[in-house]
Hints:
The protein has five helices and eight strands, in the order E-E-E-E-E-H-H-H-E-E-E-H-H. The chain is an alpha+beta fold. The chain folds into two domains: 3-78, CATH 2.40.50.140; 81-221, Up-down Bundle (de novo design (two linked rop proteins)), CATH 1.20.1440. A five-stranded mixed β-barrel has the order 1-2-3-5-4. A hairpin with a 3-residue loop joins strand 1 (3-17) and strand 2 (21-28). Helix 1 runs antiparallel to helix 2, helix 3 runs parallel beside helix 5 (203-221) and helix 4 crosses helix 5 (203-221). It starts with a strand and ends in an 8-residue tail after the last helix. The mean pLDDT is 95. Bound molecules: zinc ion (ZN). Zinc ion binds next to loops. The site of zinc ion has 8 residues, from loops.
Amino acid sequence: MTTDKTITALCCKSIDYKENDKLVTLVSAENGKIVATCKSVKKINAKLKVASMPFNFGEYTIVGKEGKYIVTDCKQIESFSEISYDIKTYYAGFAILKSMLDFSLENTPCPRLVSVGVRALKALAIDKIYPTRVYNKFVLYALDCLGYTLDFKTCSVCGKELKDGYFSKDDGIVCGECGSVFKSKIPHEVFQNLFNGGTSDDERIQRNTNIFLNGVVSDMLGVKISVLE
Ligand SMILES: [Zn+2]
């Protein structure tokens, strides 16, 4: 059956395809991850050029069927073109796009994940907030969207307020007395940053938080997030 639908989507990947086409991977609120062809976008003044650009966020009209979708129209909502103003910001932006691909599934709506991704790109490109801080917050919000909420305020087993935290794959964030023997202590400054909502202005602490979250996501989801320079 052929479908013709409009989806609200972020372009997360774009590769050359045939002579003049691009193959894009979109992450959409309505259908999750979708691969589609943008035809003739390498020609000058191609109508769908913006639709095939990474970071483009818009309402995409697609026709076709599973595995053979073609983009026929795109109303741009935001280009996030400012993201390339700084190399660190640019890398963080691509790290967000890569995680969007890793955290989404085909035929599975993910409106909150798309919203979280778009807000993170806005924080990077428009509000110009420190990249590693934005990426760490994005990862925490994305985990929450996937049902892996991490609470750094109270022990997930006994409910005691935490002064220090341990990460356990099975129990989440726990105190020194709870959780399995395989739990690992979260470095104190990383714990304090996360206890306070991940808002530290210290670049070194945000980088260590990034490294900690890399381990957490790898343990919980079996995928790697980027570690930013
Ligand atoms: Zn406890």
